[in-house]
Amino acid sequence: MNFKRFLMILLIAGLAVVVAACGSDSEDESGSETSSGSESGSSEEASAEGDSAELEGNVVIDGSGTVYPLMSRLAEEYMTTEQEGVSVEVSRAGTSAGFEKFLVEDGTDFNDASRQIKDEEQAKADELGIETKELKVALDGLTVVIHPDNDWATEMTPEEIKSIFLADGGVETWSDINPEWPDEEINPVGPNENHGTYEFFYETILEEQDLVSDINLQQEYSTLVTLVADDPNAIGFFGFGYYINNQDSLQAVNVDFGNGAVEPSLDTIAEDGDYADFTRPVFTYLNVNQAKEKAQVLDYAKYVMSNANDFAGETGFAPIPEEEAQAQLEDLEAIQ
Q1: Which partner from 108, 125, 143, 196 sits 20 to 30 angstroms from 263, CA to CA?
Q2: All residues at 6 or more sequence positions from 166 whose CB lies less than 8 Å from its CB, including other chains
Q3: What does UniProt give as the signal peptide span (predicted)?
Q4: In whole angstroms, what is the distance from residue 250 CA to residue 236 CA?
Q5: Would you call 225 helix, strand, or coil by DSSP?
Q6: Which helix (H) or strand (E) holds 237?
Q7: 56-138+282-333 topology per CATH
Q8: Which CATH number is correct for 140-279, 3.50.50.60, 3.40.50.10230, 3.40.190.10, 3.30.1330.10?
Q9: d(Cα 58, Cα 239) in Å, to the nearest integer?
């Protein structure tokens, strides 16, 4: 009996040791899970840091056809050299049409614009709770173009140019401007109302006076290039970039602002330069709300302001002062 009791005591003691050991293992596993959780947290943090360096997702841009070559070039370079996992989609509906896509819920991330946002457009943004950020990206020179065979209207004053496009300009033929010029009817063309270039020409150059009723207004700049290139009596206007890329089929009118004719060029296009009266800044507008929610949108905005001056010249724009670009970049850095 005593022997059996002794065996029972030994058995109970053995079980107690096993239970204690299991409890110790359980604590070790629990401690290991906490450590692993800490390591997992570190891994997640590292992954988050990696995501900031290697981003994914889309950036959607629409708007100005004038700004399109610059933004398209920047997008190409960004996707190739900076963020291969980000798709930057650039379209060119025109400044005004682009703002309609920008100023809606879940609209585009950026709207390129060859003019500043209008009061009514800003009011729409405020109504929708969309915070916008204007980014000045380059300088463009409004360029008046004619057929290469036109050897008479190669130099004109702003007043002569305006007389061709104004409803009450009193000009129908080239000889109406200068009796020594051909007695041939002038065929004016230009971008339509969707484009900021149209609005700049109408509001700034023509001072909001009516255009001639028979002007041929088009959505596509390539169509305007063709219309002028195919007609010795045509005259049109658009951004300098579309001229510089079609010099084989167009020629630019040199404009005499009072001190001799000035040829539009990257050297003369400036807000305080020889071509200042026909120079304008161009922009992209950022949806700040979406920049705060989508890292790739803010990252692309920073890339644009860090690199726009490097690609301005090759796409037909004059660069903005470097201090302006830097100040805008600093504003973007402050977005949380």
Answers
A1: 196
A2: 206, 209, 210, 211, 212
A3: 1-20
A4: 10
A5: helix
A6: strand 234-239
A7: D-Maltodextrin-Binding Protein; domain 2 (3.40.190)
A8: 3.40.190.10
A9: 28
